Amino acid sequence: MSPIISISHLAKTYAGGKTALRDISLDIRRGEIFALLGPNGAGKTTLISIVCGIVTPSAGTIFADGHDIVRDYRAARERIGLVPQELTVEAFETVWATVNLSRGLFGKPPNPALIEKVLRDLSLWDRKASQIRTLSGGMKRRVMIAKALSHEPRILFLDEPTAGVDVELRRDMWQLVRHLRASGTTIILTTHYLEEAEEMADRIGVIDKGELILVEDKPALMRKLGKKRLTLALAAPLAQIPAALAAYPLTLSPNKEELIYAYGENGARPGIGALLADLVKAGIVVKDLRTDESSLEDIFVGLIRRTP
User: Fold this and answer.
1) Among positive and negative, which fits the CA dihedral 143, 147, 148, 152?
2) Contact residues for 131 (Cβ-Cβ < 8 A; gap 6+)
3) For residue 191, which of 62, 69, 33 has the smallest C-alpha distance?
4) pTM of full prediction above 0.70
5) Which of 223, 257, 283 is the last residue of a domain?
6) Comparing C-alpha atoms, which of 103, 80, 84 is closest to residue 155?
7) Which residue has the higher pLDDT, 174 or 162?
8) Does one domain contain both 115 and 210?
9) Side-chain-side CA neighbours of residue 274 (13 Å)
10) What does the pLDDT look like over 95-140, one tens digit per residue?
C-alpha cells in the first residue's frame, strides 16, 4: 500500500540564513498514528507547516494522498486537517458557526448532519450555541479539532494537542485520537508529553536540529534501545564488587547495599540465572530484587544526547 504522505529530501532555509530542516525523507503509512518528537526548535512545527502548505520548502517534494503539495496545492490541502498548537478561534462566534465556516473555507457544501456528528463525537453538541469565549481551554481545543475535521480530511496533524490541558482531559483526547484512527484517519502528532507518544503511537520519529535522526515502529524502538535494570538488595553491604563477578555489567549503589545489573540493550541476553548462581558462589546473600524498564522518555533523552 502506498504511503499517504511521502516526503523526499525536504529542506528549509529561511531568508535570514537559518536552516530549519535538512534533507528530511519520510513516509507516513495510511491509518497509522505517527508521533514526531523533538526538543524545542528541532523543526517539528516547520515540517508540519510545510506539509500543510503554510510554509514554502526550499527543496524537496511532498505528496499528500498522491497529490504534490506545491503543484496540486488545493487537492493536497483538502485532504489535510491541522490542529495548531495555538488556540486561534473567534471569541464571539458560536461553536456551530465556527465549525460550519471552516468547512465552507474548503469549498465544501453545507452538511449539517456531518457537523452535528463531529460536535457530538467531541462532546461539543450541548455547547453548539455557546460563544467560544465562554468555553474552557480544553473545550476550545476540542473546537479546534472540530474545525480541522469539518471538511472530512484523510490526514490529521495535531501539533501539541494536549498542551495546557489537565490529565483527565488529556486521556479523553487520547481516546478521541484512537477513535479517529479507527475511522480511517491517519494521525500525525507532535508532543512534549512522551507518555502520550508511548501510549498512542504506532511509529515514532525523532527530529533534532532539523534532521530526522530516527524513525522506528514503537515496539521495535523499545526493544532496540530500551534497557532493563535488575536491582538486587543485599543482606549485608559490600565494600566493592568481587573480582569473580567482573564479567557482569554490575554497579554498586552509593550506600553499598544494592547491586544494579543493566541488561537488554540491543537484544542482549540477560543471563540473570547465571548471575544469581555466581552471587551464591561468592557468598553474597540477596534479600530482595526488583526490575525496572526504560521508558520512551529515557530513550528519547539518550538519542538527543547522542546527536552531535
Assistant:
1) positive
2) 91, 92, 93, 94
3) 33
4) yes
5) 223
6) 80
7) 174
8) yes
9) 9
10) 999 999 999 999 899 999 999 999 998 889 999 999 999 998 888 8
